[in-house]
Amino acid sequence: MPSRRSHSKSHHGCTQCKQRQIKCDEARPICGSCSRKQLPCEFQSFAPQTSPHQSIADISLERPGSSVLPLLDLELLHHWHTATATSLADAKPLQEVIRTAMPQEGLANPFLMHSVLAVSALHRALSHGQMYAEAAMTHHSRSLALCTPLLNNITRQNCHALFASSCLVPIFVFASRSPGKTPRVQSLIQVVEAFRLIRGAASVVNQARSWIEGGPLHPLLRVGQFQKPIELAAQRYALALYTRLQSLDLNLPQAGPDTNSVPFTPTQNGSMKNLLDLLQLYLRSGDSRAIMAWPVVVDPSYFDCLLRKERIALLALAFYGSSLKILSGHWWLEGWGEFLLKLAGDYLPGADKELLNMITIAT
């Protein structure tokens, strides 16, 4: 009697396939089944390491004499130096810090080198396809596995690399969950998850600011310090948005958090004030990081208000989406502004159509 054919059980399938009890092909970031059915695809485990070749991030310290040459990673590192780094900041001094100091720190901290290669791979994937997107997810998973245990033990030695990695997390989160290219971001829950990831990474600064100030990456701490002229169209758009947001902020009691005009909480009012301050900083400096910082500076309880679909929280989200449209030239933010504006509008009552029209400004 012929022996029964063995079957290797997958332990790395996506959550959706496991729930439906079907075999998952484990393709990342979206498996084949979820892609065909246009379902959100989430993995709860890291991708298995099946490649016989180590990453440049792994061999930089562990096997300096290795004869294995990780050509893909070398390509990604070259792409970082020649293209990606300059796309991540507006001011040349910041571009130089990102281009040279980050990889230099990564040589001694493999989790940071994996973060660098992950962002470079996402940037490369824009024009060269799926292979680079898969490489990005692999490097990101490796970075998380190495970095997460260190967040409970931030020291003078590792704080610079952890800070650099925290600067790259928003880029990766926005780019890997681009609304126009993946069904992963479809709901308020998933948007809040993305914002909380960004906020969590930024907590490194709160714990180690004095050490970071004395290190090679300290220019990245100073949002708004490096002046950059704003293009006239972007300046007009930002000024119009600031004026309309200021008008709404002054009339919040009349606007009401819902159609029953329940009084606002300080948290809800604060989310608007935070965005006003950041838009003002952008208009003074031209530093796009000011606008991106909103999920980091809002009160954490704002996200709970958003999940409850409270009216003012949705309006704040709509204004943030409209603010992100100022940065539409940044590759990792593609589609996010329009998506957040539409998502907030889907949950707001019909009486707020006039408010949404006020938020929507022609670019």
From TrEMBL:
Gene3D superfamilies noted in UniProt: Zn(2)-C6 fungal-type DNA-binding domain
Keyword set includes Transcription: yes
Domain Zn(2)-C6 fungal-type: 13-43
Family matches, as InterPro entries: Fun_TF (IPR021858), Sterol_Uptake_Regulator (IPR053157), Zn2-C6_fun-type_DNA-bd_sf (IPR036864), Zn2Cys6_DnaBD (IPR001138)
One annotated GO molecular function: DNA-binding transcription activator activity, RNA polymerase II-specific
Keywords: DNA-binding, Nucleus, Transcription, Transcription regulation
Domain of life: Eukaryota
UniProt-listed PANTHER family: STEROL UPTAKE CONTROL PROTEIN 2
Descriptive protein name: Zn(2)-C6 fungal-type domain-containing protein
Species lineage: Eukaryota, Fungi, Dikarya, Ascomycota, Pezizomycotina
